[in-house]
Amino acid sequence: MGTRLVLRLARERASLGQADAVDVARLILGANAVMNRTASIIAGRQPGLRGPLPKGIAEAVRLQLHGISEGSLVLEFELPDSLDETHALDLDDTPLGEATALTALAVLEGSETGYSDTAAAWNQLASELDIGGRNESLTFIMPSHARPDAVLDRDARTRLAGTARSRERSDAAGERIGILYEADFERNSARLRSADGASVVVRFDDDQAASVKDALRKKTRLQGHITYNERTSEVVAVDLIEILRADQLELGLPVSDFWTTKTVHEFAEEQGVSPVSTIDELRDDTISEHEAKAFMDALGL
User: Fold this and answer.
1) C-alpha R_g of the chain
2) What pLDDT digit, counting tens, does each position of 215-230 carry?
3) d(CA 180, CA 202)
């Protein structure tokens, strides 16, 4: 028999016949996401990267549903006994599925802090199940191991959310350029719209409020810690460090050149080109007279 996992969802009405079927589906999919992200890191994949796992690893952590029981909502899963030798990893002889489950449990209980992707997956599951709201808690149990049960409740959800945010936030300072607008000086936030129309949240401190006010509705270059959407890798927020002079874009072009619209004649003059005076100047020397005449006749020229 493989490693057994038990997930118990506690709520006022969570027994069979009363449980929300959507929550059952979310719980199954969320548990799979936790296992997959944890196994991905154990297997050496860089945190934050997405995509299918190698077949052997995916099979080792694929949860097999063995039952749904009364008394709250209890889902029982089982993991495969062991990996195929061709996909084995050096885990001190512990099967990958078992090692993944133990790590996921440790992240949930807070004793393991080095798996930020796992924390993000637990946090996502807590959000989808509304833990601390319509569902009180989710308990993760490994009956075959002498480990305390791990509980996903309101407090754990807060802790995991903080870990997930720190994973998405870049410690290195980055820059964004755009128009600063919609400043809220009570909440110390504003928005920055870039040239491509994308808008991101800008968070600032009280001592930066005056600089933000001066920069409103102007082309602005910001330096700050950038937060990315974990699924799309898009920038969603900037924690402001400093407002810089918007005199240069990332491509090395003056901002004035980037934002200025020029006419066709102005571009032609800059490039040193002029309109053709006769159609013969466009003649393709690689075609025959007959082909050229047929083409011109088709154009009515």
Assistant:
1) 29
2) 999 888 898 888 766 5
3) 9
